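Q&A log
Question type: sequence-to-structure
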Amino acid sequence: MQNIVPVVGRGGVIQKPVVGVVGSGTVLEIGDGIATNYRHDVHESLVSLSTRDWGRSTGFLGWDMRGWWSWYNDDYVPFKREQSRLNRQSSGLDELLRELREPGAPRSD
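Response status: OK
Response body:
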């Protein structure tokens, strides 16, 4: 590789190698490379949906996969269980109030 030319685009920068003979200087040898594809649209949708349902922002989790797993298991699942329990409890109270307003009404137990 004789030179590297920076290529600037919207939201990113890469380096385009210029292949040629190098007479002196440093030799750069690249063994392996890793490419990562970040799906910004999917990420933004995930943050939006989870924030709306949880009632607090999940933007602090960023792209940290372990952070998302931890949040899901330690915060979100217990939150949804409690929400479900309160909904069941609330529907039971509604039925009790209906029975108190309409004595003799059949219960749905």
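Response note: The first helix runs from residue 40 to 54.
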